[in-house]
Amino acid sequence: xxxxxYFLILLATLSSCKDEETTFQPSVGTEAFSFKPMxxxxxxxxxxxxxxxxxxLNIRYKDYxxxxxxRTSSALKDSVVLEGFNEAKQNVPAEVRFVKxxxxxxxxxxxxxxxxxxxxxxxxxxxxxxxxxxxFSILTDNTTNAKGLAHIYxxxxxxxxxxxxxxxxxxxxxxxxxxxxxxxxxxxxxDNTIVIRTEDYRxxxxxxxxxxxxxxxxxTKLDKSNxxxxxxxxxERPDYxxxxxYLFDGELKGIDFFDQYQKEGSKGxxxxxxxxxxxxxxxxxxxxxxxxxxxTAEVRFYTPLNVRSYFQWCYSNLSxxxxxxxxxxxxYIDKLPCSVDVYAAKDDNGTAGNWDAKAxxxxxxxxxxxxxxxxxxxxxxxxxxxxxIDTKAEAEKADSVYMPLKLLYDQGExxxxxxxxxxxxxxxxxxxxxxxxxxxxxxAQYFLxxxxxxxxxxxx
Length: 460
Description:
The protein is mainly beta and 460 residues long. The protein has 3 domains: 112 residues, Immunoglobulins (Immunoglobulin-like); 99 residues, SOR catalytic domain (Immunoglobulin-like); 237 residues, Galactose-binding domain-like (Jelly Rolls). It is 10% helix and 39% strand. It contains 5 helices and 25 strands. Strand 10 and strand 11 form a beta hairpin.
């Protein structure tokens, strides 16, 4: 028996010697490699030996879960990305082998590298979950080149089983930079638990955290009697039912169009009972004085729905400054805001006016590319033939459509003054009026709002 064991040991030794003889030795060592930590891994830089028979290299290491990872690179490159890590690691061992054209690998060169927290892991280092209006707010501040997914849940009741469960609200792409996100809860509760789980690009769950006792504060619309509105660019045209008074008349959809049309026929088709500002109204502030500090939740811009009649098609005297006839069949896309900023200031024991002296801070904003696809716009459900509404009954059943400009709950005693600035409107990418107007329909910088609302804390 002993002879058999000795024979096996000798055979293994001879085999090992044979492998060492057939594996070629690289002409460089660890000095040919350097590493730069990055989120979720590292970048390995290398200098390839001056050997025309070498075609590439292989680097092997284990990821955060202990899985064997192989990365390859050709001789034409000078770096390779090493990924597969969550929490930052120090001195991760790896081995590099050069590869010949026939596939033969060199003897290994032992190296090690450090990593930084991956974006789905570091997401939690800076994220904040705050109590909010009818729900909660999330403040994110992600690292450079961040990527991954964040799944947002709240603790509620499964509608099928009736048992407590985590309810998915939304899945977000983790992207570089800061952002403020507000969510309303379908299952109302004063006290909530919010859960966030992150996922890496390979589909692995990375990290989870729960926030307890997140309050959802109820809101209510502030009656117009409790605030004053100041703006000097309103188009006051009673003959077209346009003016400031229509901005606060409570009509959110443009339904009054049907009554006008029934009374006046084609003459009523351009009477839309809405608010139009211009010319050169972009960048001109609208001011609101709420008479006292109020916990302010939201400002809403409503768009008219695509209410229209197929019986009259009149475009007489259409020109760049004659905007009124464009309302005939919903051709006002280029008047609807795509970029809005809201500023607020506290009561300064003063009065309305002298606006430049107020201590303004930006509290909300909404920004989209003017040329973004129509389906991505906040007005998506209110424009285009697919959303055409031909009867008053249809319009009454339809949901109103508005731009939400939400403020954070954390504002102390609240604000008295609001400054609202429309920076830009959408472009009519479908060129609905290009046959008569060219491509610069809104060169005079008008903007349109069906209704403006201010929402505050319910007990205000």
